[in-house]
Amino acid sequence: MNKTPRIATRSAASSDQLLAFVQYLRGKKIPVSPADTLDAIHVAELLGYENKKQLKNGLAATLAKSQHELSVFDTAFEHYFQARPAKPSATQPPHKQGEQTGQTPDQASPTAPSVLEGTPDPLDGLRGNALFDALERHDETALSIAIETAAAEAKVEDISLFTQRGQYVRKILDALGDAALREAAIELEQIEPAAFEAVQALREQLRERVRDRVERAYLIHASAKTEDLLDESLSKMKLGNVDHSHLARLKRLMDRMAKKLAARHGRRKRRFRRGKLHVGETVRRAIPTDGIPFYPRWRKVEHRRPQIMAICDVSGSVASYAKFLLMFLYALQDVLPRTRSFAFSAALGEVSDLFARLPVEEAVERVNLKYGGATDYGRALADFSALALAEVNTATTVIILGDARNNQADPRLDLLAEIKARSKRVIWLNPESTRLWGTGDSEMLRVKRQCHVAHECNNLKQLERIIDKLLSDKR
Amino acid sequence: MPQAVNAHQLENTVSDTHYPTLGGIDAIQSAFEAAGYICTKRIATVIRLAAALEKPILIEGPPGVGKTELAKTCAQVVNRPLVRLQCYEGLDESKALYEWKYGKQLLYTQLLKEQLGDVLEGAKGLAESMERLHQFGDVFYSEAFLESRPLLKAMETENGGVLLIDEIDKADFEFESLLLEVLSDFQVSIPELGTISARSKPLVFLTSNDTRDLSDALKRRCLHLHIPFPSIDLEARIVASRVPELTQSMTDQLVHFVHAIRELDLKKAPAISETVDWARSLVLLHANDLDGRLVQDTLNVLLKYEEDILLAEGQLSKLMAAVKKT
User: Fold this and answer.
1) Which chain A positions have a beta carbon within 8 Å of B174's beta carbon?
2) What is the value of pTM for the model shown?
3) Structural domain count of chain B
């Protein structure tokens, strides 16, 4: 639809555009590696930049690696590349200069003023200046190439704050050679007011284009940085303090962490399927073949499947942390195939099937509803022992999340000791900071002795680190 | 120069690839259509790129949208042999790459035992005997004893074939790493023999039903193609090309019905293959109008779970209304 003339530098400008687009995609959390970028450039060279739909199909094949990424890519592509062709239609109408209205834009306009006045046109001095010509002829292609080049020169992609916009607009204008136009305008101001107006109008147009360019750069480069900053601080914030409005973001962040962990640890499943040579059996099988071992037998290495049992306090003070722990554990289902979860406040009950059936958020709500009440660790541990102690074995990791504040009741450390003895590991996660352990009715210091490890755990970063460690020595 | 490449020139620049019969994007579309596979612009673009960039295509999408079929049709279009590797849990290199023919090796050593005396005749001492044996090199680890499995076979095909690695998500994680060498360098390393490179690079298709995430390393090496359920028009074209016996109006009704049924909350939504099966059965039944009774009797062709069938039967009047509206 946009029949812009082909210009030799177009492909260079376009591949710069492509690089900027890749930046933009990274900002949208699509991981694009340098190798992918090279592929994308190859693809663009093969397919050309003219047919947008074709280009989009081709780029999608190299840059979007999953269905989710594909949908992000599709909107990003439309958003990013649609901004450009929309420009000609946006800038063609504004013939603010009075003397040019009524004329058809392209060829007519350069000659128009001189015909009108009959005397040598005062603007003739400026003709030949590439920038001026492009502006006057509304040469979209030449202008956008010039602006892209100048933008690259001014390193506009380094922009990080909104307030830096003016500064970058200035830089780009300088790089474009606006200074020459400005000087010409100053000269004309006294002698030819009409021409002065015309030049100023064109300069204003140019400034507007540049401003658009800078703002787009800000959106692409800086907004991504801002997002990163927000993610970073959110992952270090106490989960209990996270504002409701940030929950969705936190959930996304957690999913990303879970995915990363799953990718890091998932790969080692069934590494040693075939064990060493089973010598005895091989020799026995070799008897019919005169002792020549035609049919070797291998030992099988059997893994005891690791199991995780999570016991979570869901009483008011700790509930939000329990929610995140459970969400995290269930986001890792690919890597942690057998997770059983128990929730308690006063009484304890198994909630695994709730999580199997319902989306995590809803399951957590249900759990809170069912088992909420005044905390009693002693009773909870007794219930747990009755329910699942028989299934705790050397492949089991027991994770207990709670603040160990037991309202002065007996925490039944004997039961905890038994669980410790039977299991591979008991990990206690406490949302309270270590400084508060053992103060008031906290039994944490006593509880700690009956666990293999006890951690303070109240933000996403800590949670990630603990689960990472858990997965690393899972086997 | 790249900026000047447009659809017409694409036709001319493909001769540099191994697959001269694959033309530009439009040519691919029509060639596949002639072979009975209706492909969208996106699919054709990706195939074009795969041939030009020599990269494998990773096809994802729900079961039955024609992922495997695409590879088969491609082999047919370029007229090269198709090597297929079906993945499953526990697939390892001895099933996918190569295996030493252990039995044959053992048999030969037994048969050649007598020859050993001749070879070593006159040799003085252990050192000299060893020397002589070394002269024979690794006779038992040579190509004669090598059993090629699909991946190696694809490397050995002359003029490049089409390699289909089906349902890669069913294989273990380790298997993916095994594939990396094959997919990026088109070579197989055999410790005893060295590296075997592809005679000419095959076109590689990987399919995945998305039951798990594939590793980034694998994804990075592939062009990514997601085939969703087709639009109504596309599906009607597909049915028309696969089951030409069916009348135009029947085809339309049938496709609209299938699209309406996909909107339901089904355990397994019917895919293109089921639509085509259904169309075939309707032809067999000599049906010339889609009515409620006929649908009820043949619903089991379209839906594969009892609960889905019950659900659809409950909504039948609504579904039929969607068909009749058109």
Assistant:
1) 267, 271
2) 0.64
3) 3
- B203 with B305, same domain? no
Range of the domain at B126: 98-145
Encoded tokens for A231: 């993610």
Residues B9 and B67 in one domain: yes
Same domain, B241 and B314: yes
> Chain B within 8 Å of A37 (Cβ-Cβ)?
no
* Interface touch B226/A67, C-beta < 8 Å: yes
The first and second tokens of residue B213, run together, are: 């995430």
Same domain, B122 and B219: no
Shortest alpha-carbon distance between residue A261 and chain B (Å)? 12
The answer for A 69-128 residues in CB contact with B (under 8 A) is 70
**Helices B248-262 and B316-325: angle between axes, nearest 10 degrees:** 130
Q: What is the dihedral of CA B152, B156, B161, B162, to 10 degrees?
A: 0
| ipTM of predicted complex | 0.75
Domains in chain A with CATH codes: 10-82 (no CATH), 88-228 (no CATH), 270-300 (no CATH), 307-472 (3.40.50.410)
Taking residues B49-73, what's their average pLDDT?
Answer: 89
Mean pLDDT of chain B: 83
Look-up: residue for tokens 């990269």? B55
Residue partners of A203: CB distance under 8 A and separation at least 6: A178, A181, A182, A185
Q: Give the pLDDT confidence of B221-268 residue by residue, as tens digits.
A: 899 999 988 888 889 988 888 888 888 888 888 898 898 888 888 888
Cβ pair B213:A43 closer than 8 A: no
- Kindly state whether residues B212 and B105 are assigned to the same domain: no
